[in-house]
Amino acid sequence: MTAPLPTESMASRASLARDFRRLGLNAGDTVLVHASLRSLGWVCGGATGVVLALTDVLGREGCLIVPAQTPDNRDPSRWENPRVPESMWDEIRDHILPFDPKRSPALAMGLIAEQVRTWPGAIRSRHPQTSFAGIGPAAEKLLATHELSCQLGHESPLGALYRADARFLLLGVGFDRCTAFHLAEYNLPGQVTRTNRCVVRKRGQRRWVEYQDIDLNAGDFAALGNDFENDRSVSVGTVGSATARLASVRDAVSYAEGWFMKNRHRTPS
To answer: Would strands 167-171 and 30-35 be described as parallel, antiparallel, or unpaired?
Structure first.
């Protein structure tokens, strides 16, 4: 996937940095970025130019974190976009590669996230399905804890970002991609759980492992995000050709928890 060729305008490392600063991103910030490269229009330097612009703004003390999830490391019966015929499931189960923090790509998260994952000195959390990657002096501490049975909860990098009072940046993507809202789900009573399966390497052997976690649901995040933006402090601006939103992880989690209690009707398990 590549960004469109230039027509009348071009975004560059320098112009993107100006846009990020105008949006409210500052030196020393810790920011969780969800991004679409294509939404920015034609960027000279592509994903590399975007990451350089972000690090220019964040400076030496800032920290850039991205989701580095591997959604195909799961039972093929749960694969989507595209789904695969049931006749292939057993063969796929036999050949899915085990998660490797250094090698497993995160292309499903977009080219900017993959660029961060492969950046010199990048750190990655060790969850085989919902890992995060980051660069900056705080990345190692933020990504150190990621329990298998806590995909996006308080014992994950998302919880660490909450405690660090980080912000999140939605760069050309909507609130349906706002991972911070998932953390609020862990604070709700009576959450339904489900069994997840993935492939890991243990003691040199490829193995399927199972774990229990809450049944995460992003189906109402767009509606939640619309209300959040109307009620709370969200900086909205243009970066390149994209609409960008910058807000507090803590504020989003607090708001989402109340919103879920009001708008979701779930029977306790």
So the answer is: parallel
